[in-house]
């Protein structure tokens, strides 16, 4: 009889973490999910749900009361542009996330867990490679010389190197994926930490037909967005492979924020006007370069952006309607 595999998902109370727990359960894993908060949308289907602060080494050590085959380290202090790019949260972002990574790496090593995934970010890439909204360069090898546009990006880059040293010095099988704007249902959609797709879906859902929504900047800044199920598939392929990374996990379907608004408005069946206002923006252009992940893992996204946005808008629209009816 095959022994059941065991995994810890750090950040299981978060958006991607909740979906990852579900995928591991589908594959037959015993899963322990841990986060400082419970999942805000009840997507907490782990076998054991631990509410604890991973900045506390004692909390981390207590997670290993049985042999653990794999650790997925998604926990971080993060949010959308309104949280990360104002500069007001830089010390907390760097301190909290680095401490979580230090604790989970060391406790994994001491307890004999060899395989650990780290969720890095496209924010590691140099700002100067992302100034042209039509031609951003986010190929993995361009990350050095380093010049991220935020302290969040600097922390992610440092932590990548931290994981790689544990591979080099202790033989740990680390896997590093750089997420590019993951979106979908059951994610943060209000309150200031939501990402662009969720924020746009919420604003369109709240607006009347023919109404107006506010967008930071001129809306010509470009991004690509990856649906959460695609992200989880790429993570699982990476963990099953012999490839360490870092590797981009994203979509190459790039569009402007203005075009994103028009796409969501079309899904909603509404005419929406855009009012451009000052606000934190991040880089002018960002798009995943998927050459390396195609070469190493044979992976590419399987669905167009609009399909994922339809599912996400439907979910957020139901939340907005529920609030309006309350």
Keywords:
single chain, 326 residues, alpha/beta, Rossmann fold, UDP-galactose 4-epimerase, domain 1, 2 domains, 7-stranded parallel sheet, two-stranded parallel ribbon, 10 helices, 13 strands, globular
Could you describe the 3D structure shown?
With 326 residues, the protein is an alpha/beta fold. It has two domains: 6-182 and 225-249, Rossmann fold (3-Layer(aba) Sandwich), CATH 3.40.50; 184-224 and 253-286 and 303-319, UDP-galactose 4-epimerase, domain 1. Helices cover 39% and strands 17% of the residues. It has ten helices and 13 strands. The chain has helices at residues 15-26, 57-62, 81-84, 90-110, 151-170, 196-206, 228-240, 257-268, 291-297, 305-325, and strands at residues 6-10, 30-35, 48-51, 70-73, 115-121, 173-179, 182-183, 212-216, 222-224, 226-227, 247-249, 254-256, 273-277. The strands form four sheets. A seven-stranded parallel beta sheet has the order 3-2-1-4-5-6-11, with helices on both faces. The protein has a two-stranded parallel ribbon with strand order 7-10. Strands 8-13 form a two-stranded parallel sheet. Strand 5 (115-121), helix 5 (151-170) and strand 6 form a beta-alpha-beta unit. Helix 4 runs parallel beside helix 5 (151-170). The longest helix has 21 residues, at 90-110. It is globular, with a radius of gyration of 19 Å. It starts with 5 loop residues before the first strand and ends with a helix.
């Amino acid at each position: 009889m095959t022994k059941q595999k065991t995994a810890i998902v750090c950040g299981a109370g978060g958006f991607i973490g909740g979906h990852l727990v579900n995928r591991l359960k589908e594959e037959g894993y015993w899963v322990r999910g841990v986060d400082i908060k419970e999942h805000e949308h009840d997507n907490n289907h782990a076998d054991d749900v631990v509410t604890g602060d991973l900045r506390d080494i004692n909390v981390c050590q207590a997670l290993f009361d049985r042999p653990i085959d794999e650790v997925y380290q998604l926990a971080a202090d993060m949010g959308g542009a309104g949280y990360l790019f104002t500069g007001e949260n830089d010390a907390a972002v760097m301190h909290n996330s680095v401490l979580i990574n230090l604790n989970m790496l060391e406790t994994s090593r001491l307890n004999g867990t060899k395989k650990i995934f780290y969720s890095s970010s496209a924010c590691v890439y140099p700002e100067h490679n992302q100034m042209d909204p039509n031609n951003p360069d986010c190929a993995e090898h361009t990350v050095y010389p380093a010049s991220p546009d935020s302290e969040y990006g600097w922390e992610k880059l440092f932590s990548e190197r931290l994981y790689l040293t544990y591979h080099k010095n202790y033989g740990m099988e680390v896997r590093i994926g750089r997420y590019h704007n993951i979106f979908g249902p059951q994610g943060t959609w209000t309150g200031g930490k939501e990402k662009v797709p969720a924020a746009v879906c919420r604003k369109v859902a709240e607006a009347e037909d023919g109404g107006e929504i506010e967008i930071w900047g001129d809306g010509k800044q470009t991004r690509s967005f990856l649906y959460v199920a695609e992200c989880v598939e790429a993570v699982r392929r990476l963990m099953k492979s012999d490839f360490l990374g870092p590797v981009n996990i994203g979509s190459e379907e790039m569009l402007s924020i203005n075009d994103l608004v028009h796409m969501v408005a079309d899904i909603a069946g509404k005419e929406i006007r855009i009012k451009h206002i000052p606000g934190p923006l991040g880089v002018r252009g960002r798009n995943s370069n998927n050459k390396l992940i195609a070469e190493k893992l044979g992976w590419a996204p399987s669905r167009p952006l609009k399909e994922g946005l339809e599912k996400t808008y439907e979910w957020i629209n139901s939340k907005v309607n529920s609030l309006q009816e309350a």
